Amino acid sequence: MNLTDLSTGVMLIRIVFAGICGIIVGYGRQRSNKPSGIKTHMVVAFASALFILISKYGFADSQNFDPTRIASQIVSGISFLGTGIIIKRHANIEGLTDAATIWCSAAIGMAAGAGLYWLAILASILLVIGTNVLHLLEKNHRDRQDSYMITCDSIDALNQLIQENQSSMSWHRVEKHGKKEYLIRLQMDFENKDVREKWETEIFSNPSVSSFRFLYPTD
C-alpha cells in the first residue's frame, strides 16, 4: 500500500487524533507550570504521526526502503528537543520529566499515525494521570523537607550535630569555612511543623553554632 491508497480522510483523522492526544498530555504539563505545554506536545505528536504516515505508506513502491528508519530517527530527533528543556540549577537537575514527557508524546503520535488509536489515547490518559499523581506525592514529601546552612566553631561540634540528626537528615555536605569554622549544608525531613520548630530552637540555642539560616531552593 502506498500513500495514495490511504484515503485523505483517514490520514487527516490520524494526524488530528495525534494532535488531540498531544493536547491532552500538554494540558497536564501546562497546569503544572512546566516549560513544555499544549503547543509543544501537540506539535510533537502531530509531527510524529505525519512522519509515521510517510514512512509507512510514502515509500511502499521502493523495494529497498526500510520504514523503521524514519521511526528510529524520530526518537533521535526528539532527544535533541528534550536536551533543550533540561537545566542544571545549583545541585538540582530540572526538566527531566518534561523531556521524558515530550519523548512519550512522540511515541503517542507515532501510535496514532500507525492507526493504533486505542493505544494512543490510553497512553495519553495514563501518562497524564501518572505524572499528576506522582507530582502530588512528591510535593507532599517536599513540603516536609527543609534545607539549612549551619556554621560551627569546631569539627567536634559539627560531628555531634550530624550524629544527633542522622535519622532525620536526608543529605548533608561539610565545608571548611575560614580558618576556624566549619560549615554544613543539610536537608532535614520533618514529620510535622512542631518537630521542625523544636529542632530549629535547639540549633539556635546551641553555643557551638555561630550562624544558622534557612536555604531557599535557589540558594
Automatic annotation (TrEMBL):
| Stretches that traverse the bilayer | 6-28, 40-59
Domain named MgtC/SapB/SrpB/YhiD N-terminal: which ranges? 16-139
Q: What is this protein called?
A: MgtC/SapB/SrpB/YhiD N-terminal domain-containing protein
In what way does this protein cross or attach to the membrane? Multi-pass membrane protein
Q: What family, per the record?
A: Belongs to the MgtC/SapB family.
* Taxonomic lineage from the root: Bacteria, Bacillati, Bacillota, Erysipelotrichia, Erysipelotrichales
InterPro entries from the UniProt entry: MgtC/SapB/SrpB/YhiD_fam (IPR003416), MgtC_SapB_SrpB_YhiD_N (IPR049177)
Q: Which Pfam families match?
A: MgtC (PF02308)
Q: Which UniProt keywords apply?
A: Cell membrane, Membrane, Transmembrane, Transmembrane helix
